[in-house]
Amino acid sequence: MTTSEDQAGVSRADVLRLGLTAAAVTGGTLLTAGTAGAQEAQGEHPNVRLIKEYYSVYAEGNPAKLRRFFSSDIKWTIPGHHPLAGTKQGVDEVLAFFRELAKAGFRAEPIFLAADGEWVVDLHRGWSTQPAGLDILWALAFRVRNRKIVEAVNFAGDQHAADQYFWKTCRLAPLPGRLG
């Protein structure tokens, strides 16, 4: 029995390193971040364009600039068992999360984006630079209404590595100040 990796001759590491898309690997037809010209010719979904804009602004490293993408009642869920895990509610909590990612020099490189109705699915490489140490595949499910992100749910490709990294780099405030 052969795996799809054996059949395609491309490993997950190759996909991450080269920024290949699933369509490039399998010969399929997918909406991907790497085929922007082809998508526009086919009428790219407006929510895919919005998430591409979001990632472009995110790459600037200024979390405050992300505010324009979020609805006032946004919910952003970060999985895991670490100091940043949980559901952030409202723009201020979500931006606080992004400020912590900025301290770690977090970067994201979109690999795949697809939309259906209000939902956008995103697959990206996410890595830390300050300190380096986390470099994994992430998936996000974004729900978009009226050109604003109203909900996002993160899925880590290696949750154990993410938990370990964030416990190492994100310190909790001492008690009793940590408690509401």
Automatic annotation (TrEMBL):
InterPro entries, sorted: NTF2-like_dom_sf (IPR032710), SnoaL-like (IPR037401), TAT_signal (IPR006311)
Pfam families in the record: SnoaL_2
PROSITE patterns listed in its UniProt record: TAT
Domain SnoaL-like, chain residue ranges per copy: 52-151
Source superkingdom: Bacteria
Name of the protein in question: SnoaL-like domain-containing protein
Source organism: Saccharothrix violaceirubra
